[in-house]
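Section 3.1 - Work completed
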Amino acid sequence: MATSNANQLAAELARALLSRFLVIHAHRRRLAGGSAFGPSSEEVAQTLTGGAELAAAIPAEDARVTGAAAALAAALALEPDAPLARLVRVFSLDELDTAIVSVLLAPELDHELERAIAFALDDFTRKRVDLGFLARLIGGHEPALHDRVLTRLDDGAPLRRHGVIALGSAEHVPASMRTLRLADRAVAFLRGHDTIDELVRTTVRLSYPVPLQAIVMAPELIAQIRRALEGGIAPRVLLAGPDGCGRAMVVEALLAERGMRAVRIDLAAIASEDRIADKINAALREAALRDAAAILDGGTAIKDEVPRALAQAIADGSAGLAVPLVFTLSSRPAWMVNAIPDLLELDIPPPSFRERLTLWTRELPPPLADAADLETVAARYAFTGATIARAARRAAASARLRDPTGQVTLDDLGDAARLMFSHRLGGMAQRIPTGFKWDDLVLPKDTLDAVREVVRFARLRPFLLEDWGFAAKLPYGRGVSAILAGPPGTGKTMVAQLLAMELGYDLYRIDLSQVVNKYIGETEKNLAKIFDEAESSHAVLFFDEADALFSKRTEVRSSNDRYANLEVNYLLQRMETYDGVTLLATNLEQGLDEAFKRRVRFSVMFELPEEAERRRLWRSMFPARVPLADNIDWDLIAKRFEMAGGYIKKAALRAALIAAESRRAITTADLLEAARQEYREMGRIV
C-alpha cells in the first residue's frame, strides 16, 4: 500500500532528527575505519547529511529539523483525513508527541532508517529505541527539551494513556532504558490497514445506522439528544433508560446526518473480563482512529458498583479524547460524575402507549394483525422497541405454523409477549397457572363490580395516563394495586388468577418464608429483587396472607420494633413507585397498616356467599362429564351448609370420591355426607 505524503514527511523528520543527533554526539562515535557490526559513522553521516562537515553542521541540522517539522505540520493541516493527521487530532497530540510518533513510525516504513537508528544506539542487537535515547534524539542540545520529551512519555500523557505507544517491561531495567514502540494497531492504522484490534474484536463493532425517520421516539426528546451531541467537539453524554428503547439507534442516526459514524462498544462484556484497562483503551482507540463517536453500551450491568479498574480506565481513556462519547445505561451511576466531570445526562423513558402501538403496527401491519388486537397488546405490555420487534416476529412465525394465511391473533401476540419475559424471581415466588374462566366465578354483585373496576383500570390505564394526561397528576403510584380482603375460601386467589389472565400476565405468589429474613436489611433486599424483576418481567405480584408482611407499624419499644417498622416503610415506598400489578390478599383487613390502605388503589371485599350464591357454587364445582343424579336437592345443600367457595370445592370432590368408588352418579346423600365431613373439619356443628 502506498505511503501517504504525511507519512513520508514524518520519515523525513525522523531522518533530520537522526542526522542532528549524530552531529551532536559525533565525538562519541567511531569516526574511522568502519565497524564489523555495520556501516561506519562516515557512511551514515554521508547518507543523512549529504557529506557536510560534521563539526560545522549543527546550525544546519537545527534548520533541517525545523524545516522538516514545519513541512509535516503543514501537510497535516492540508490533509486532515490522512491517518497521521487524524491520529494527531483525535488524541490531542502536540508537536513533541508528533515527533515521537514520527521517530517510531519511520523504521516501520523504511528499513534503512532502522539500521541508522541501530547505529545511533551504538548497538546493532537492539531493535527498539529507549526513553533516554528518544529524549536525547528529539531534545537535541537543549536539556530542558529532554525533560519535556520524557514528560510526554509519562503514563498519564496522551500517547500512553490512549495506547498509541507501548513500553517494554520495567523489570530489572532503569527507567530511561525501557524500550518503546508504536502499538501494533497504531502502525496498522498509519499504514492504511483499518481492521479492529484483535484484543477487542468480540466487543467492538461498527454501527450501521437506520434513517432517523424510522425511529419511534418523541420529537422533543430527539431534539434534546441532538443538542447534546452538538455540544462542542467531543461531548460526553449519558443516555439512561431501559434496554431496547432506541438510545443507541437515535445517536447513530443523528451522527449519520452529520456524516459521522459510530463505534459500538460492549461495555458490559469488557467489565466482566480481565485486562479491563487495556480493553477499554483499545476500544476507545478504535473509535478515535476512525474519527467516530464511541457508543459504550453498559445496559443493566453497569451500575453504582463496578470494578475500580473500569471506572479508572473510562476516566483516563476519555480525558483528552477528541471524539464524542455516548454511554447507554439503564441508570445514572454516581461514579461517572467523578470519572467524566463534563458528562451531560439525559433520561430516555420507555415508549409510551401510542409509541408502542406505532411499533406494533409497523411490525405487524393490517391485515397481518387486527388493529384492535394490536391496541390491546400495546396497552398490556410496556415493551421497548427491540422487544416488540422480537415478539412480533415470534407471533408471526406461530401464526404461519397454525394458519397458512398467517393471520396473527391476540392469542399469538399474548403467547409471544409472555415468552419475552425474563423471570428470575427464583425460590421467592411461585408461578400460579391461570386455568379458570370468568364463568367459574361466583361472587355477590358488589364484589364482582369491584373486580371489574380493577380490570377496567388496568386496561384503560395507558389511555388515562397518556391520552387524557393523568400522568401529570400522578407522578408516582401509577401501578395497578388492590387489596383482596375476606374470609378464607371466598375466591381471593381465584380472582387474582382471573385478573392475571385478563391482563395477559403471569401470576406469581410471593413466598413470604423466603422473603422475610431475621437479618437486618435482608428482607428489604429480597423485596427489592422481587419488585425489580417483576417490573421488567410484567408479572403480577400476589402477596397471599399479606397481613404477615404489611402489618401495622408499632410503637418503637425496642430495636426489633424499629427494624420491623423499617421493613414496612420500605414496602410503602416500593408500592408507591412500582408501576406493575400488585395484589394483596388478607383474611384480616384490619391488620393491615393504614398507610397501605391509603396507597392501594382498590379494595375488594369478599363476603361469605349467600344461599343463592352457594347453590350456584355447588352446581359449578362439577365438570360436565361428572354423572349427577337428576333429583339432587341443590336448595337443601345450599341452605343447610354455610360454606365459602373453597370449602364447597373440597366437599364436591369428596362427594365425587364417594360415588366414584361404586362407579355411579352422585346423589343428594353423597353431597350431604361430604358436606358434613367438611363441616366437622371446619370445627362447625353439624
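Second construct:
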Amino acid sequence: MKREVEREKELPAFSLTVGELELLWSRITALFDDPGDAHAWFTIRLPSERLEFANIEELKQYAHLPARITNFTLSLSQGGRSVTLRSGRLLTKAEVSASSETEAWCAGAIDTVFSFTQSHKLWYNWFVSAPIGWVLLLPIVVAAILCLLCVTPAEASCDSPTWLDQYHSLRSRFGDECPEADMTKPMFTRVGTLACETLNGYQLAYNARARSWTYSPTAGVRPSSADFPKLKIGTRPGTPTPPDYFGCTIHEDGVPISTVDKRTRSGSIYHTNLGWLSPADLRNSR
C-alpha cells in the first residue's frame, strides 16, 4: 500500500534577498534524507521576463536580479516527499504545500517555511489577509494620512532606530522594510544587527535566531567543538543556543562600520570590522 499525505498553509506576504533565499533553500533541503540529491525547480518572475534555475548556485551566479525577490515559485522533491512554496503579490496570498507519507513530515516542512517567511513579512501583509472591504478602503485612508503628514512610508519607518527591535532588525512599528545601506557611504548598525566571527557561525546563528535562539541544524555546516566551544557535540534541535554560542554579537544602534571586504563574501553576507553580517542590517544615517 502507498499512502500520500498533502498539507498546505497560507503564508504572510514576504520578500527575500538572494542570501536569504540561500538560507531558506538550505533549510528546506535539510528536510530530505539526501539534501544534495533533492530535485529542484525554481522560477522567478520579473516585470518583463521569467527565469528558471535548477539550483541555488545558478541563482547566485545570475547578476541581474533585484535587491529583493517577491514573485517566485520554489519546489523541492525527493522520493515521495515534496515541498512547494509560492510567493504572493499585493492582492494574492503566498502559500506553502507539502506532500509525504506521513503527517509529521508535512507538518515539519510547512513549519520550517512558515517560521522563515514570518521573519521577512512585507509591510502590506496585514491587509492581504484582511476582508476585501478593508482592502478597497485602505488606499484612500493611507493616501489621506500621508498627505497630512507629508512623509513617505520609508521615511516614517526607517529614520528612527527606536522602532526596531533586537530580533527583527528591519521591522518597524508599521511593519515596513528599510532600504539596505549604500556601501559607498559611511555605514552604521541598526538595533539588533547580528555580526559573527565566522561565516559558519553567522549561518548557524541566523537559523537559531529565527527559532527564538534555539539550535537548528544548518545544511552544509558541521559545527565542531574547536570552532564553537560552547556548542556541545550532538546538541539537539530546540536546545537554547544564544548568539555567543556561535561567536556572534547582537549590536546596538549606531556602531560604525569602518571596513567592508567586498572580496570576501557569501551571497549578500560580507566580512567587516565587526565580523560577518548582512548589509540589510545597516544604515547610512547615524
